[in-house]
Write a structure and sequence with these properties.
The complex is a heterodimer of chains A (about 260) and B (about 350). Helix content of chain A is about 35%, strand content about 25%. Chain A has about 260 residues and is of the alpha/beta class. In chain A, helix 5 crosses helix 7. The N and C termini of chain A lie far apart (about 40 Å). With about 350 residues, chain B is an all-alpha fold. Chain B folds into two domains: about 80 residues, no CATH class; about 240 residues, MetI-like (MetI-like fold). The chains are: A alpha/beta (about 260), B mainly alpha (about 350).
Chain lengths: ~260, ~350
């Protein structure tokens, strides 16, 4: 079920500005890969290009090849919505749909893609909420608005919403940056649990978090402001944090950078 | 220490200030009013309105002086500005209250069953009865048809501008919508008169031009469309981009995201914009006069022959020489306001139904 993601010579642009250059990376199924690096180095841009979310912004485009197993998702015959059904995404700030109840938020992806059987929806909602460690907290108020939950709960609701459609890859764009340490811990536990079923790629500014949750770590960096971001080093997390092979990675990880 | 506070120990009470007692505001008001009354009425330069206005000014000055003396300059400024803001609020509400009061007190005279159940057909200058049934029918039909035309067109146009429009075309559309917002209603009426009544309607009527409620609805549409497009556009732009992206990330197609996520989120605002434009259209007289002509009889068919409307009824009754017509005009005006109010409340309730209760 989980799929392999392979990027070959990926460049991403905002208009004429080149945000990332020549990224090559292979993410194996059922692993957690952390993308780290300083602000503006293109790690979020790269993450967003994996499910073709980058091109939603005006004048933004991606060059290169990104394959999901054998399929190049940037092939011109590929249906964008089909790609996004396979590659889900959790955003930096929780974004539950404000007009929907908790239940409707969780099954939004199913409902809006044509699944209407009540029993199926109910089962999917419970399963996803349990996977997201949120079921016990919300099971008595599924008909209340999702926006009424706390920040950490909202983020877990968004994770439940993402995994309810059973994607194969889950992308997370700094999912804990707006949360307190306890909610962060809850989500890190969750990432650990989800690893059995999904391929997870997570952008984080928190190096301890990268060290805790990921199997592999990719370090992105820029020479100076205005230059495109590049992938500097990509290796096992253990190796990156104990014995990186590039000096720049070591500087960043030990805090000597910038 | 900081630049703002000198080096000092913070002991219990050292951050306290003296406060004016609660009755000070009332006392100042009474003294100010009394002073102003003595000044104005004593010299005979005005009536009670001037007493109140001068009293308010004296109150502001007196209160500032009192606060300044007791509480210090910062607090005095705060209190004076608060008082100014409150008076501005009262001043803004006064005309509205006055209009409502005038409407109700004058309109109540003819607020009877007869007014709502009869037309002005065969009502002469000496007849006290007669009503606005034909005008209510006209207003409902004309505004209803105009709404049927403009709401889908306006909302879809706004969706195009926000979600799909890129480049020169959407810039041009937005520019012309802005220009259309400023069209005087009489010009919209003239346009429909020249285009629809004189050129198109003869094709359906054996070569004879014909006034109709539908022509009035077309003229009102010209007025409503830009308002709906602009207000809907603003509301759609307020929907945060992360909501759209959240839906895209679930593999939801763009059109479904717009229909099921973006529009429900913006719905209360969109409805408000639509109701504002409907209220404006319901109050328009000139275009209806130009292209529907007005009539004293009931005409249910909006596509043939003259129709009246409430605002046109108010206009004709207010300029009528019969001594009974002013009452009819006031009641019709009250009816028009009540109609718009009821429609607005109904629309708001309808739009709120989708909102979840916490």
């Amino acid at each position: 079920m989980a799929k392999r993601v392979e990027a070959t010579n990926v460049n991403a642009y905002y208009g004429s500005f080149k945000a990332i250059e020549d990224v090559n990376i292979v993410v194996e199924p059922k692993t957690v890969t952390a993308l780290i690096g300083p602000s503006g180095c293109g790690k979020s841009t790269f993450l967003r290009s994996i499910n073709r979310m980058h091109e939603v912004l005006p004048n933004a485009r991606v060059e290169g090849t990104l394959t999901l197993d054998q399929e190049n998702i940037y092939d011109k015959h590929v249906d964008v919505t089909a790609v996004r059904r396979l590659i889900g995404m959790v955003f930096q700030r929780p974004n539950p749909f404000p007009t929907m109840s908790i239940f409707d938020n969780v099954v939004a992806g199913l409902k809006l893609n044509g699944v209407n059987k009540k029993a199926v929806l109910q089962e999917a909602a419970e399963k996803s909420l349990r996977s997201a460690n949120l079921w016990d907290e919300v099971k008595d108020r599924l008909d209340k608005p999702g926006a009424g939950l706390s920040g950490g709960q909202q983020q877990r609701l968004c994770i439940a919403r993402t995994i309810a459609v059973e994607p194969q890859v889950v992308l997370m764009d700094e999912p804990c940056s707006a949360l307190d340490p306890i909610s962060t811990l809850a989500i890190e536990d969750l990432i650990f649990k989800l690893k059995d079923r999904f391929t997870i790629i997570i952008v984080t500014h928190n190096m301890q978090q990268a060290a805790r949750v990921s199997d592999r770590t990719a370090f992105f960096s820029i020479e100076r402001t205005g230059d495109p971001g590049r992938l500097i080093e990509y290796d096992d997390t253990q190796k990156i944090f104990s014995n990186p092979s590039v000096k720049k990675t070591e500087d960043y990880i030990t805090g000597r950078f910038g | 220490m900081t630049l703002l506070a000198p080096e000092q120990d913070v002991t219990a009470g050292s951050l306290h200030t003296k406060r004016l007692p609660a009755w000070a505001a009332l006392a100042t008001a009474v003294v100010a009013l009394a002073l102003s009354a003595a000044l104005v009425l004593g010299t005979g330069i005005g009536n009670w309105v001037l007493v109140v206005v001068l009293g308010a000014v004296l109150y502001l000055i007196g209160f500032w002086l009192a606060a300044n003396a007791v509480e210090g300059p910062r607090s005095a400024r705060n209190r004076t500005w608060s008082a100014l803001i409150h008076s501005a609020c009262v001043l803004a509400i006064l005309p509205l209250a006055s209009v409502t009061w005038t409407l109700i007190s004058n309109g109540i005279n003819r607020l009877d069953g007869n007014f709502f159940l009869t037309s002005m057909n065969n009502i002469g200058a000496r007849d006290a009865n007669g009503g606005a049934y034909h005008a209510i029918v006209g207003t409902l039909e004309q505004v209803g048809i105009a709404a049927l035309i403009t709401i889908p067109l306006g909302v879809l146009g706004a969706i195009y501008l926000v979600e799909y429009g890129r480049g020169k075309l959407s810039l041009a559309i937005r520019f012309f919508v802005d220009v259309m917002t400023g069209i005087p209603s009489i010009v919209a009426g003239l346009f429909v008169l020249a285009f629809w009544v004189l050129i198109v309607s003869p094709l359906f009527n054996n070569g004879q031009p014909q006034y109709s409620g539908f022509a009035a609805a077309l003229a009102l549409s010209v007025l409503m469309l830009p308002t709906i497009v602009r207000s809907t556009e603003e509301m759609l732009r307020l929907v945060p981009a992360p909501l759209r992206e959240g839906a895209y990330a679930l593999g939801v197609p763009k059109w479904k995201t717009i229909l099921r996520i973006v529009i429900p989120t913006a719905l209360p605002g969109i409805v408000t914009g639509i109701m504002l434009s409907i209220a404006r259209a319901a109050g328009e007289t000139a275009p209806v006069l130009l292209v529907a002509g007005g009539t004293a009889a009931i005409n249910f068919n909006p596509f043939e022959n003259n129709q009246s409307s409430l605002s046109l009824f108010v206009f004709s009754q207010a300029t009528d020489s019969s001594r009974f017509s002013p009452d009819r005009a006031w009641t019709a005006a009250l009816t028009l306001v009540a109609l718009v109010l009821i429609l607005t409340i109904a629309a708001k309730l309808l739009a709120r139904r989708n909102r979840l209760t916490r």
